[in-house]
Amino acid sequence: MKRMVLISYGLMVAGVCLATADNNHGEAKAQPVRKAVAVMYPTQGYSVQGVVTFTKVEKGIRVEARLRGLTPGKHGFHVHEYGDCSSTNAMSAGGHFAGGGTKHGAPDSKDRHAGDFGNIDADENGVGRYDRVDTMIALDGPNSIIGRSLIVHDLPDDLITQPTGAAGGRVACGVIGVAKE
Predict the structure, then answer these.
(1) Phi and psi, residue 38, nearest 5°
(2) Is the link from the previous residue into 163 a cis peptide, with omega within 30 of 0?
(3) Residue 25 designated active-site
(4) Residue in 78, 112, 134, 157 annotated catalytic
(5) Residue 96 annotated as catalytic
(6) CA 145 from centroid of its chain's CA atoms
């Protein structure tokens, strides 16, 4: 767990410190974030691991995930409020990141939490893949996911139950940080 906290802290620092020198005046100039990453680590009692990338594309943010160690079937998949995976059950990550949304919903619903990605589906070998372009999250501004956490849940998200989709416990957590392009 200490390794996960240190890596999470490192990703947060990378996100906060992203700047380059402006050759004309020597001032720091923020660079637009085009890619982010969450390295997923298991919570206590689970073995889920993997990497999720977030890439700015023309129509939104492309979310690509490949996870292993899941039980076969669907698992709730959400961005949570805080970039804190330090507790053994990942409850330190807080609730779903609401952003501009007002209630929990399906990823294609206009009225949903910004962090509602629905489900990641794991095959019979426990490998889960996810690939979609999301139009609500961002890599900057009020719906920015940078410095927040990504959670994989034990159960499927029913896409209806408020405020969590009845997705059960948290099996993996990763802090979303700025990635090298």
Answers:
(1) -130, 120
(2) yes
(3) no
(4) 78
(5) yes
(6) 7
Yes or no: say if 171 and 103 are a contact pair by the CB < 8 Å rule: no
DSSP state of 70: P
Please, what are the averages of pLDDT over each run of 10 residues along the chain (181 residues)?
Answer: 46 41 52 94 98 97 98 97 97 91 86 92 98 95 96 96 93 96 81
- Is residue 158 annotated as a catalytic residue, yes or no? no
Give the whole-angstrom CA distance, residue 48 versus residue 127.
9
* Contacts of residue 30, Cβ cutoff 8 Å, sequence gap at least 6: 18, 19
End-to-end, the C-alpha distance of the chain in Å comes to 28
Rg (CA), the chain: 16
Catalytic residue, candidates 75, 112, 113, 148 = 113
**Do β-strands 35-42 and 28-29 pair in parallel, antiparallel, or remain unpaired?**
unpaired
In the annotation, is 75 catalytic?
no
Instruction: Exactly one of 96, 134, 148, 157 is catalytic; name it.
Output: 96
For residue 171 the two structure tokens come to 């099996």
Question: Which member of 75, 84, 112, 116 is catalytic?
Answer: 116
**What is the pTM (predicted TM-score) of this model?**
0.83
